[in-house]
Each structure stands twice: as C-alpha cells, then as structure tokens.
Amino acid sequence: MDFIESPAVELPEFAKIGMNLADGSLNAVVLSVTDEFFAPRERMLNPAPARFYPGLYDDNGKWMDGWETRRRRNTGHDWCVVRLAYAGTLLGVDFDTSFFSGNFPPAASLEGCFCAEGDPDEQTTWVTLIDSVALSGNQHHFHAIDSQQTISHVRLHIWPDGGMARLRIYGLPWCNWENRDLSQSYDLIALENGGRQIAWSDAHYGEPRQILKPGRGKDMGDGWETRRRREPGNEWCILALGQAGTIEKIEIDTAHFKGNFPDRFSIQAAFEEVTLERALVTRSMFWPYLIPEQPLTADSIHSYINEISKLGKISHVRLNSIPDGGISRLRLWGKVDSVQ
C-alpha cells in the first residue's frame, strides 16, 4: 500500500547527543492511557518516522500512525504514562504531530519520576519537566529539558485530546555501577551501561549509537552506516564508555552488511578528562591504537583478545571504518577501573 513518510528534520543538539529513551524497540512501553479509541498507544513509541496511508481506514475511522484519543465532551484531558527504555538524565523532548493536521492537541506538557523498582503508583511524586506548550499540526516540536534528576518514567499530558504521532525523549542512560561486582567483565560501551556517541565523520544511513544497542542488529538499517566515500581517508566515530576501564575483549559485528561492510577497522583509545566535542575530535587523531587495523568480512561477528594493546584505563574510543561502510554492533568487554 502506498504511503507518505514524515520527512527528516534538522535535529537540535540535545537530540544528537542524547538517545531516544522512549524507543519502543528498546522496550520502552506505554503503561497506561486515558483513551486510545482512534489509534493505540504503542505506535507513538515506534522509532521509525511516522507514515500516512491516504486510503487506509479501520473500524473506528482513519488509520493514523500514532496515539490518538476520541473527541472529549467534558472538561478533562487525556494523558499517558511511559516507562522509558532506560532511566536517565533527560535533555529534551520531541512532541511530533506528523500527519495530525485537524486532530492534533492544542497543547502538551510532560512530567517525570524515578522509580528504583517497579512502576509509579498513586503515591508517586511527579516533577514538571515541560510546562504546557502550544502545539501545531503536522510538525516536530523540540523542547530542551533543564533537569539533573534521573527519570525512569514520564507522564505526557495532551490538552484536551487528539493525536501524537511520536513521543521522543532524548537523554543519557543512567547505570547504577555502585551495586555491581567490579571484579566481573562488562560491555563498557553498551547503551545500558552508559555508553554514548560523541562525534562522527558521517552517518548518512544510521548514527553510531546504533552499534551500542543490545542484541544483534535486526536488519541493515540497525547499525552505523556511512555514505560511499569518494575521497582519500576513512570514516570514524568517537564513543564514550559508560565507565572508564581496561578492555579485555573486542567484538565487531557486521550483521546484514554483505556488500557494504568496511574492508578494515581499527580502534584508537585514551583516558580523557576533557568532554568538549571539538577538543576530543582533534585529540582523537593522536590516540594510541587499542587494536591496529584488522580485516572484516560480511555478516559476521569478529572477536579479538590477543590483538588488543595494553593501554590500561580508557574512557573514550575512536572507531575507524576503513574506508567506509556499515557496522552493526561494537562490544568492548572489560573491567571498570573505579566508579566515577
């Protein structure tokens, strides 16, 4: 069936730094809603761009790609509670009303809470993250969040009713390292352990943070893939470990990349106290090699132990894709030096 896809938009800085913690593919879930008559809750957390099918209807009316409530005939309003994929420090939100042109909410607001265990109940204290803001139809609405609190759940209010194509909550995942056995080896670059993207040379088909996701990639779109490089050099990305540590094992997975995987890769690394992106990009060119150039093959997991250089504690890596192509996952297994 023919469809129209929501066009790409220029992202604010917080959406480039933070990951979407309300990503349904990472197990974020809408726990409760006041109403979902026209379109069910789970569509709102789909990480893919919203789609519009011009001639598609269901038993309740026009099929819409998002969460949509019925028309209210009282003084109340609709809301929903979302358990984020990872608790974290929130940087911003995107209230996306793509294709909701005559049925979007005039306003929205956002609250948050932290539940160390379980989900919120009637005794939970909610804090305001975004005061009520005006919405327009068929648009992205980006708003920065100024809060240092760790948030595990959000409550979206729409005033008074209508449809939200996507809710994207951008933030940095939080991991409680203090309760972990630091004698064990962990994937220090994994999203769930606080790993994050810092900078990259190109991400035409997918951002580097994709390679930090759990599990194997589901398809060729689930990874970091660059355009075809037509000039000398190679593509690269800089990544921050969730906690500084000593790397013992490296895994590079080219799952689904069969005619477009990099010919080779290498990883440079260092312990850096500087956090400014521009400085890290420059300094990374001179970092020593954690692992020198190694050949890659299509659609395979590549593991390395003996090839790893003994650099000691590192906090950042520069992954070089030589000369270009797609990588599905990166795993850096090692031991945390000390919790920071």
Automatic annotation (TrEMBL):
Residues 28-172, 194-336 form the Allantoicase domain. Gene3D superfamilies: Galactose-binding domain-like (2.60.120.260). Its EC number is 3.5.3.4. Keywords: Hydrolase, Purine metabolism. It is an enzyme of class 3 (hydrolase). The gene is alc. GO terms for biological process: allantoin catabolic process; purine nucleobase metabolic process. It comes from Aquirhabdus parva. The keyword Hydrolase applies. This is Probable allantoicase. GO terms for molecular function: allantoicase activity. It catalyses: allantoate + H2O = (S)-ureidoglycolate + urea. HAMAP family: Allantoicase.
